[in-house]
Structures are given as C-alpha cells and as structure tokens.
Write a structure and sequence with these properties.
Number of domains: 3
Distance between the termini: 45 Å
Structural class: mainly beta
Radius of gyration: 27 Å
Largest sheet: 8 strands, antiparallel
Number of strands: 41
Low-confidence stretches: 4-34, 228-241, 419-428
Shape: elongated
Strand content: over 45%
CATH topology of the largest domain: Jelly Rolls
Length: about 600
C-alpha cells in the first residue's frame, strides 16, 4: 500500500468527545534537560501550540476538545494525509513526541504521523505508525516523491483497537533520524537531505482504501536540541591533528596504569603574604596530570590558576598559568613567559569550572584546556625529576587576600613507566575528534532514561567522559555509555553503578559480562572519568585511569551513535535528580 495525495494544512477543529485510554508508563530517550522544551497538554486552545483554523472546512476540521486535540476529515471517503504544523520556530535538531490515537468506527487502514524539518515544498522527515498492521516506518518527503527510509514490525508494542493512545516520537539530530513507539527506539536512519524546518503531527489513510479519517492527540512536546556537540569550542587554528593524536595516545598510555597521585580535591586560599603550591608529592620527569578548578565566587578582581611541572623549588619549576581573561602563559619560575596564547574555551563566570590537562615528555609539553589542545611547548631539558603542583594567584593583579579557589580531580600518572603499546588486542591510534567536547546535565525521571547523544555513526572509536557524583545519594545511581546504537535495541550499554559494579549488555538484555571496580569515587561532587576504546570485536575500559576490563563485543559490530546516560535501571533512579558531566568526546581510530 502506498502513501499518496498528501495534504499539508494548519490544524482546524471538530467538536467530539472520546474517552481514550491513558498512556502507561514507558521508557524513552531524551536530550539534556537544559534544552528548550515546548509543550501542549491540549487543555487550552488559547495557550496551545496548535491552530484551530482550517483552510478548507468542507474537507477537514480540527479542535481542542475535552483536553485532547481532534483531527477529522469531514469529506466522505477522504483519501490522503492531513498534517498540522506546530507553533514553534523552525528547528534543526529537535524531538517531537505526542500521544496519538485513531478514533471512529475502526482503526484499520489508518496511521498517525509525527514529522520534522518540513519546508514549503511539503518536504522533510516523518515517522508513520500503523497500529493495525503493527508497523512503524521512517519516510523522507521530497517535493515530488516519498522515500521510505526504513520500516520495522512493532506489533509487540501495540495495543490494537480504537480509543487507544500510543506515544510516537521522531528525533532529528544532525543526519541521524530516529523514531520511538511507546518509549522504545525502533527505527534509525542516516540522511542529510534536509537540515531545518517545521515540526508537525498528522493522520492519514491509504489511497487504495479510503475511509473516515479521525485522529486524537494529547501531551505534545517539542524539544529544541540546539546546536550539535561538535559546535563547541573550536580548536585554535595552529593546532594540528598530529598534536591532538599525540596527546590522546600518550594520555591513553598513561591511563592504562594506576595513578601516581590522586585524585584529590580541596581549596586553595589566595594569600597576599605567601605563595603556596598544593603538591601531589611525586618525583617525575615525564607524566600526565589533570585538575579541574572551580572559578571563585568573588570576581572583584581577575583570577588565575595553574600547574607547576618538575617542581623542586619555586624558581626552577615550569609553570602553566591560565587567567580568567583566557590568556595563558608558560614560564620558568617567576621569569618572563617563554610561550603564551589565548584559550578559546575558557569558562569565566563564578562557580564554573575549567579543566587543565598537561603531558610532559622530555622537552615536549602538551596542554589541553577544557579538552582543547594548545600549541606544543618546547620545555627545557629536564635536569632532574620533580613534583607536580597546582596553585592560584600567580600574578598579584589576580589575587584577592583569602579568596578561596576550589579544585577537584587533581591526579598524576607516571608517563615514563607507561608503554605506548597496551598489549591489548587493539591496533588503535585515536586520530580525530569527531564529537565534543561537551558538558551539561542529565535529569533522572521515573519513566525516562535520558541520554545525551554525540551524533556520530561509528563502529570503532575512543570515547571519554567525566561524570560528577550527584548531590543526592539517598538512592543508588549509575553511569552508562551506549554505543553502536543504530536505533534498534541491539546496541551496547556499559554501566557502572554506585555500588562499584560494572556490566556490559546488549540493550536491556541480561549482562553479557560484569564485575567490580575498586576506585570509584562515590561522594557527592566527586568526579569519575570513564575511558572506552572499541575496535572490532573487543573493547577496553578504564575508570579514573585504571584499566579494569577487556570486553567481548563480538555480538554486535554495527556502526551507530555513542551516547551517555544516567538512571539506566529503576533501582538507580531518583526522579528529579541531576548528574553533571563534562569532557564528553568521541574520537575516530586510525
């Protein structure tokens, strides 16, 4: 059966009351909670998102009635589709979700629709849901054609019959178009033909089987997902791909062994009478170190933060200093800078954070601020091993007496003891960052597993993310990385729980492997860094720099998206709780 005789209109109204069954609790995927959400519970036409004006009342009509939105073809034996544009701005990346049902004498040969990126030529994307046939399909509407991208059986998710609501959802993000039925992602396809446009809902029937056409909609939401992750903080123009690859390769080699110090968190107190370092108490020449500074709440004067390398005394160490203006300097002790520049990704508002990562190897130094790699530093030839330390108030202009500057996740690894060959089954070299770095928050809901997707389509990759332990730990929590997600249920989920257990599973199936981790940070506000390498039929995962498992991934090698989530199981979910994350990156492999 084909779809023909499309009719794209603004919704009008028909006054009729039906008692539709309420939607049961479902599990759905959503985007970060700080994104703009438009909603309409269909209770008030004056404040709703839909129009009640029909351009052709003799053929079709629409109305808000008894807390629902009614769509009906008045014309006998109407054939085709009636779309309704939703009263939100044109969007590039969006999620449209609605409870939809088919009324009248029978639901046979009818379907409901949700769409995105519609243009003036009746183009865009839509999900078509046929409850009688138990089918869902993704379509691309071109000006002169309708292209079925993918179709699947969803009969196991359907309650047949009239007066039944089903929740349908279309997620349009970058070139990944996916759809859900009753909370389960059932379809996904990559297509880049249309990039922005209007969101809409609708109803239709098959042209060879005309019949009365009657639809009911409720609980409409449109989520503006904003710009893609890859839009954040572009690298400065003098940073080459080779330097990024070198940084990642050395960092990964360091992370495959236990850290030499940390992670620690505390507060630096600026003092006009003394300049003090917070030391890690190591003695290293070559190392990888990371620290996250929290901007002071007192911004009456500028501030600075930094790290000292190969510290023996306060005149011989190498200093990397970052100012609140975004300027950075590299010095020997208190000498004039031997290198300087500007960080494009500085966070300067009170209580925001900035993460500094530094690699020192011989005369080469590589610094990343908020995951943006800066130009390489030419370090002096190391005369001796030294400590790694951090401080604030390097310059008097950036100092307020007794001003506190908190820090967290200060950690150091011995790079000279690390091997750049992991001995694992991999032949990997992360080469190009293809998503991120991204930061944000994840909101836990009773009936929702919220994800932040990267929008990539890869089978082999390296990903890293920093999760912050939520403030409320009265209920257990978990972190999850999903990968090779092509829109179906056969994607991998790697989960670490607050009890120190980890598991890997295909979708919601029983774990294929599981175990425990010994170095999970569990106090509110502490950070945990998860690094995951996936190549062919195997994977390796590390927590806070300690490699804890090699994964068997032979059950699924499909390319797909990489995403992160919290609240993967109901026992680890506290509705309303938020979990912060940062430095979410995905890298391709050579």
């Amino acid at each position: 059966m084909s779809r023909r005789n499309r009719l794209v209109v603004l919704l009008a109204a028909f006054t009729l009351s039906l008692g539709f069954m309420p939607l049961s609790s479902v599990t759905a995927f959503a985007q970060p909670s700080d994104q703009l959400v438009y909603s309409d519970d269909m209770s008030n036409a004056a404040t709703g998102l839909m129009s009640e004006i029909s351009p052709d009342p003799a053929r079709f009509s629409y109305a808000y009635v008894n807390g629902q939105f009614i769509v009906q073809a008045v014309e006998t034996n109407f054939t085709g589709e009636i779309f309704s544009f939703i009263g939100v701005p044109d969007l590039a990346n969006s999620i449209t979700a609605v409870d939809a049902g088919i009324g009248g004498a029978t639901e046979s040969n009818k379907y409901v629709i949700a769409g995105c990126r519609a243009g003036s030529n009746n183009d865009g994307y839509l999900v078509l849901f046929d409850p009688t046939a138990g089918l869902a399909s993704l379509w691309r509407n071109d000006p002169d054609d309708q292209v079925k991208l993918v179709e699947t059986d969803v009969s196991h998710l359907v309650a047949p019959g009239v007066n039944q609501f089903h929740r349908i959802e279309i997620d349009c993000y970058l070139d990944l178009i996916s759809a859900s039925v009753n909370g389960e992602v059932v379809l996904a396809e990559f297509d880049s033909t249309y990039t922005t446009g209007a969101n809409y809902i609708g109803i239709g029937n098959y042209s060879v089987l005309p019949d009365d056409l009657f639809g009911v909609f409720d609980n409409l939401t449109v989520t503006d997902q904003g710009a893609p992750l890859t839009a954040t903080a572009p690298a400065p123009p003098d940073v080459s791909g080779d330097l990024n690859a070198t940084f990642t390769s050395l960092k990964n080699a360091a992370l495959l062994q236990p850290s030499a110090a940390g992670p620690t968190q505390s507060t630096i107190i600026q003092d006009i009478n003394a300049f003090n370092f917070i030391r890690s108490n190591v003695s290293l020449t070559d190392f990888y170190a990371t620290v996250t500074f929290i901007n002071p709440s007192d911004t009456s004067r500028p501030w600075d933060v930094g790290m000292a390398l190969r510290y023996v005394d306060q005149q011989s160490e190498i200093r990397f200093i970052l100012e609140s203006t975004g300027s950075w300097y590299a010095t020997i002790g208190t000498d004039q800078p031997f290198a300087s520049g500007t960080v494009p990704s500085i966070s300067s508002s009170p209580n925001e954070s900035n993460t500094i990562k530094i690699i020192a190897q011989g005369t080469m130094g590589i610094v990343a601020v908020n995951s943006v790699v800066l130009p390489a530093l030419n370090l002096p030839q190391p005369a001796a091993a030294g400590d790694v330390a951090i401080s604030s108030g390097f310059y008097s202009d950036n100092l307020v007496h007794l001003r506190p500057v908190p820090f967290q996740n200060f950690q150091v690894w011995n790079l000279s003891a690390a091997s750049t060959s992991t001995g694992s089954p991999f032949t990997m070299t992360p080469t190009t960052i293809i998503a991120g770095p991204a930061s944000g928050s994840l909101l836990e809901r009773a009936d929702t597993v919220q994800t932040t997707i990267s929008g990539v389509n890869v089978s082999d990759f390296f990903t890293t993310v920093v999760f912050v332990v939520p403030a409320d730990v009265s209920v257990p929590w978990d972190f999850t990385i999903g990968f090779r997600d092509a829109g179906g249920v056969d994607h991998y989920r790697l989960t670490i729980t607050s009890g120190g257990q980890w598991r890997i599973a295909l979708g919601t199936n029983a774990p294929a492997a599981s175990g425990t981790v010994a170095n999970l940070a569990t106090s509110p506000g502490q950070e945990n860094t998860i690094d995951l390498l996936v190549q062919s039929s195997a994977g390796a995962v590390a927590l806070n720099g300690t490699d804890f498992a090699v994964l068997d991934l032979s059950s699924g090698s499909t390319s797909g998206d990489v995403w992160i989530a919290t609240g993967n199981s109901s026992s680890n979910t506290l509705p309303g709780r938020t979990t912060q994350f940062s430095d979410f990156e995905v890298w391709s492999l050579a």
